[in-house]
Amino acid sequence: MTAKVLLLEDDADVRFTFSMAFQEVGYDVTAVTTCSEAISALTELPLDVLVLDLMIGEELTLPVADYAALLRPDIPVVCITGSRLFSGGELFTLSRNIRWVLRKPVNLSDLLSMVDHVTGRVAARAAG
Prior knowledge:
The chain is of the alpha/beta class. The protein has 6 helices and 7 strands, in the order βαβαβββαβαβαα. It has helices spanning 12-24, 35-44, 62-71, 91-94, 108-119, 121-127; strands at residues 4-8, 28-32, 49-53, 55-56, 59-60, 77-81, 98-103. It has a 5-stranded parallel sheet with strand order 2-1-3-6-7, with helices on both faces. The longest helix is centred in the N-terminal third of the chain and has 13 residues, at 12-24. The two termini are 13 Å apart. Keywords: Phosphoprotein.
């Protein structure tokens, strides 16, 4: 079964690059540009992982992670940030679903490895 990724990213070039990278390794990607679109997708789609840019314009995306934690306590969240906010690891205490934080510029290999890890694809490939 193909793992489903929700990608929240407001930069069109980054969104395209990440989406293509996920698709190339077999993920089903839904890419959105706003927190409200992400919340709608969480409500409507069976998702396996969220990849959230921490800042969409001036808006923090933590409410999306919080909503995901309420709706689906098991869904992992990977945050991406170019911001200096929460540089001491505070994000892990602010939302229980945040598993990893990557700093921009993001290495695609690192991003894919982290998403593989939180979705269990690494273990599935090793076993299969």
